[in-house]
Model the fold of this input.
Amino acid sequence: MIKRATICFALTLLAAGLALFSQAVPRNSSAAITAKAPTAQAGLPDLIVDQKRLLQNWVVRVENLKAGFCSVEEGGITPGDHTLIRFTVSTPNIGDADLVLGDPNAHVAAGDGLYEFATCHQHYHFKHYTLYELIDPRTGHVWRAAKRGFCMIDVEKYQPYPGPANNDRNYLSCGAPATATSPMIVGNQGISKGWADTYVWKLGGQYFVLDGGDGQPVVPPGNYTIRITVNPGFVPGPGEICRYADPNHPGVCHQLPESNYENNVSEISINIPDHPGKQGVGPLKNQPQITSEPID
Done:
């Protein structure tokens, strides 16, 4: 299932949509750094990265990246033929409460620093939802992916979810500000319990550039690790806000509330061959080339 920006349609903002962040302070504020506890729901979300989905959905291949692709523009990539690793990432909510963010327009109006408007995508992105890393296990060197932002919505049911099977799909709209030619689109971002936000391999930015075409060092053939971290922890710098303190790692904070921060990382091992060609190597080999880039 491909997430499409076109599902962003007007919804009435739920009153609970901003409850988890009603006390948020802008990231550049000079106010004292304090962790905020969620109050909107009895339970808490619990985000994971679906390792099986990642393991079964990747390919190393040569592709032609066109100048008009959003990922080329945002990732600083030289247009043309490049060797890539494409991959799918799915982040289910296995907790006993929804992850509720609501309308990004309201977050931007409040100045809480959680969202930015992606001009190429024409909708809002959450700034620090998931971290993609390609790691050389021999040297520890890390490459970044082309993806720059995320619109969190319910894309598909997570079948292994241990809770009720009939829970509703609630979050469907990325949201966008008003422009000179278009009215504001009311957003409703979040992930319902038992649902997953999924970024399939065909989407813009779901790849690492291996040949240096994005300004990073060339990735030599060999064995590597793909590491995906949802709701990554960070150590706040001066003026940064700790919205949710990690109870098991003093000094580490997260942007989103969860019942368990210890299950937020998944890794797989892959082999990058010398000459993968356009047909590619990996579980998704022999897939058609991408001639127009779907955006999330």
Remarks:
- Residues 1-40 have pLDDT under 50 and may be disordered.
- The helical segments are 51-55, 70-75, 104-110.
- The CA atoms of residues 27 and 237 lie 10 Å apart.
- The chain has three helices and 16 strands.
